[in-house]
Amino acid sequence: LFQRMKDMLSLPTEVVSQILSYLSDEDNYLIAGNVCRLWKDLLVDYLEIEGEYLSSHISNYPGAIKSWTKAIGLQSKPHYFLRRARLYWGEHDFSKAFADIKRGMASQPDPVERCLLKSLKYVMQYNYAKAFKESSKAIALDPSTSFGYYMRSFAQDENFHLAIQDLDLALANNCTNRTLMYYNKSYYWGLLGEWGKALQDATIGCTTTYLYPNIYSRKIFVIKVMTGKIPNTIEEEKTLTNYIEQRREHFGHVYYVRATIRQSCDRYEEAIEDYKATLKHGYHTPARALTDIGDCYRKLENQVEALKWYSEALSVSSDYMAAIEGKLVATSNATKFDYLKYVHVNPGKASFLFRMSAAITADEGKLGGALALLNEGIEKNPYEPDTISTRADIYAAPTGLGYSNR
Question: Residue 348 carries which DSSP code?
Fold first, then answer.
């Protein structure tokens, strides 16, 4: 009967009306019920396709979240919750991601889905040992699960070669966002100091049909590291500009990537305009964009505007608070000695004070001195993540200080 309903719906409207006029009310109710069922199934299929396209092909995570939310309203399937949780994770909305994982676990997932839900949860909790275990179980149950390989690449901790192998397996098993895999491969090759391979994967990522805007800024960053020069960015900017102009919705993330490219090329006025467009059209970490605007004004030696935007960043979010506070004080002409003299007075803030003095020393171009200050700060508090990540930034700088250093 269901197949006959499909056949009948393909007929001209007037023919369908004539058929219905000869049927009893009971038959009409039966037909109406099946038509509604058919439409519902077709709508769910459409929403699945729309959700995958918006997230994987054009990186419109907010739009994809809306599609999966509609699909969940029609059918609460475990893999719908998994897909939406992945998007919330990408949007840094962790509370909603954890909530979807919990709902997915409660909706009778199959064994593979259960492992993948657990793996995503553990990755977000930085519990990589458990994430590795669950993603490996998912792969053992279904060797074609590309998301399982992607999750396991995160869980490889510092074994970047194995992480790259997992990303290659994700690509071989038709993962939905191929550009993201190439971006991550390029990132890991950079951590290994293999900049030629990092550039190769970034370049391949730029040629796929999947839009992941960060791939363009990644390619430019790698070229700058390899050559020490600002590369020609015409093609990358053209791709991003075309994307912005051809879409009805302008997505803040695309503006943000174009802004980072222009900032890296010392085109600060253009970068500021793009960062402002980023905020206008929505971006998941506005404090970062506000801080970047302050950085551009600081490079333009407009301290008043820089202070204004740094202050705005602090008022919007506590994210990056320590780093923003450091920029505020540095812009107000504080010296590293203004920080260091407080170390003995307030030893609880020693790591923060050393980090801020190191930031000023780095701005003076003395990265070796900044590194020494950071090492002192880490000795005072070995588990302060901002200080450790700041040291990692200096190690990653194209100065020969130690690409391979953890």
Answer: G
Instruction: Give the span between the Cα atoms of 377 and 15, in whole angstroms.
Output: 81
Express each pLDDT in 265-285 by its tens digit: 888 999 999 999 888 887 767
Burial of 269 (0-12, 13-18, 19+ CB in 10 A): exposed
Phi/psi at 98 (nearest 5 deg)? -65, -40
Residue 14's contacts (CB-CB under 8 Å, 6 or more residues apart) are none
Contact (Cβ atoms closer than 8 angstroms) between residue 47 and residue 71: yes
C-alpha to C-alpha distance for 306 and 275, rounded to whole angstroms: 14
- pLDDT per residue as tens digits for the range 136-148: 999 999 999 998 9
Judge whether 360 and 366 are in contact, CB under 8 Å.
no
The single-letter DSSP state of residue 55 is I
Neighbours of 232 (CB within 10 A): 11
Q: Looking at residues 223-240, what average pLDDT do you find?
A: 80
Contact (CB, 8 A) for 180 and 208 = no
Can you tell me the distance from the alpha carbon of 183 to that of 199, in angstroms, rounded to the nearest whole number?
10
Per-residue model confidence (pLDDT) at position 363: 66
Does residue 171 surpass a pLDDT of 80?
A: yes
Q: Angle at the Cα of 93 (from 59 to 318), degrees rounded to 5?
A: 115
Q: Residue 259 pLDDT > 70, yes or no?
A: yes
Structure tokens at 288: 């970062």
What is the C-alpha to C-alpha distance for residues 278 and 382, in angstroms, rounded to an integer?
36
pTM (2 decimals)? Answer: 0.63
Residues 6+ apart with CB under 8 A from 302: none
Per DSSP, the residues of 119-173 read: HHHHHHTT-HHHHHHHHHHHHHH-TT-HHHHHHHHHTTTT-HHHHHHHHHHHHHT
SS3 per-residue string spanning 276-301: HHHHHHCCCCHHHHHHHHHHHHHHCC
For the segment 92-144, what is each residue's pLDDT rounded down to a tens digit?
A: 778 899 999 999 999 888 999 999 999 999 988 888 899 999 999 999 999 99
Q: Which of 261, 334, 333, 327 lies closest to 294, judged by CA?
A: 327
Is residue 284 classed as helix, strand or coil in its secondary structure? coil
Query: Is residue 135 within 8 Å of residue 116, measured between CB atoms?
Result: yes
Token readout for 151 is: 């999750």
Q: Which of 269, 272, 264, 268 is nearest to 236 (CA)?
A: 264
